[in-house]
TrEMBL record:
<keyword id="KW-0472">Membrane</keyword>
<dbReference type="GO" id="GO:0015743">
    <property type="term" value="P:malate transport"/>
</dbReference>
<dbReference type="GO" id="GO:0034220">
    <property type="term" value="P:monoatomic ion transmembrane transport"/>
</dbReference>
<keyword id="KW-1133">Transmembrane helix</keyword>
<keyword id="KW-0407">Ion channel</keyword>
<dbReference type="Pfam" id="PF11744">
    <property type="entry name" value="ALMT"/>
</dbReference>
<protein>
    <recommendedName>
        <fullName>Aluminum-activated malate transporter 12</fullName>
    </recommendedName>
</protein>
<dbReference type="GO" id="GO:0009705">
    <property type="term" value="C:plant-type vacuole membrane"/>
</dbReference>
<comment type="similarity">
    <text>Belongs to the aromatic acid exporter (TC 2.A.85) family.</text>
</comment>
<keyword id="KW-0812">Transmembrane</keyword>
<keyword id="KW-0406">Ion transport</keyword>
<dbReference type="InterPro" id="IPR020966">
    <property type="entry name" value="ALMT"/>
</dbReference>
<keyword id="KW-0813">Transport</keyword>
Amino acid sequence: MFPKVHAGMEMDDTNSGKSKGNAEKSLRILVDKMRRFPGLVWQTVWKVGREDPRRVFHALKVGLSLTLVSLLYLIQPLYVGIGQNAIWAVMTVVVVLEFTAGATLCKGLNRGLGTLIAGSLAFFIEYVATKSGQTSRAVFIGAAVFLIGSAATYMRFFPYIRKNYDYGIVIFLLTFNLITVSSYRVDNVLKIAHERFYTIAIGCGICLLMSLLVFPNWSGEMLHNSTVFKLEGLARAIEACVNEYFSDAEKEVSGDQSTEDPIYDGYKAVLDSKSMDETMALHASWEPRHSRHCYRFPWQRYVKLGNVLRHFGYTVVALHGCIRTEIQTPRSVRALFKDPSIRLAGEVSKGLRELASSIRNRRHCSPEILSDHLHEALQDLNTAIKSQPRLFLGSNSNQATNMLALAAAHATQKQGVSLSSVKTDSSALLDWKNKRTTEQSKEPERKFLRPQVSKIAITSLEFSEALPFAAFASLLVETVAKLDNVITEVEELGRIACFKEYQHGVEDIVVTCEKPPVNPAQNQLPSHGAD
């Protein structure tokens, strides 16, 4: 007799075996991740420091500043003189010390002025309140807190104050309420306020010394260099875009087009720079002037130039989109316009590089920046397009091969749809409508559009083969018009900033970066609270 084994017991054994195997596999994966974790941490640390060595120096400056303010606690004579309020110096260093000198000046002066004004006003409120009785004093303090708190908060909505002194008003509200409300119950609150003000002043002083004297990072220089890099990036993007469009080999289009794409890398920094340009311009306005010839350096002109470059970048994005479209002009047709298009893109890129060089060296751009070669390339492209009118007007012959029909048939075959014949006239669309009406009467619940339907609808239209190229050429010509706007803005910047005059025959030494520059946003640490 064989022992009876129930089916349920066999399933339990199988499930337990699978669970055990999954647990062992998960454990092996966890052990492998833990083994690789130190190496990944070290790679990240090395990569961040190698991208911008200034980050390492900034971290060391913060550590040194914290060590200096900690001496107020560690050295006995200093601790006796200041007491436990030394912690306010540590908090000030943590909150105020930023990556650039302009950001540190902005925060440090805002914190110092906010604390000083709040303390002075609180002393005045306390002096008036002590002249009244205990009950009247409480009412007076409550009314003062309400009125000043409401007024200060409402002032934060003023655009100029919100842009320049918002952090100072937050510190003012915090300090004023701490001193005023505490003075009702604590007798020596004024002494505590004095000590806190001294420690905050010590912390701000250390931050300013570290930012201005020890390996300073200037927001103005970062904004200046960022503008140069954006011009060079757009120049590289236009050249790469046109070269790829007229390349003989067909390039595979991946799902993530931003990975290792020189065109995308060229214009990405331009499109993402609006908020960062405004922040750097604001911080640069707090920094000492970098020019002896200008009383007020025009940092806002860099912001306006950035806006013009963004509009230029939108055209480059559209050019990039022409490469990624599914409907393309045959390469044999593109070859007819290859030479003037590449020369035109090269002249536009040359003009952008000349503008970048002029800003880098703080000089006016060459008067020949819009050279005759640019106009010749533009005229040659116009002549080449006019010499091929049949390509752009299309052909009325039914036997002519329609590029859009071939593209649609090729796309539908990729999706597994076999079309025995692709019609290029309106009969294809009429046949589909009749068939669709029949299907809807049978299956009313189906209300989606199948992928091949849009392809048939496209093939029913009589387009010319060169129409996609016409869009590309129009955008390429648009870059010439946008280049004129960029030149005007750069010249205005040079005039206001007192750039030196261009000297013919004197060549500037231009140093270009092989790798893209570090985005300044990566060096901005998250904002701290108003402690």
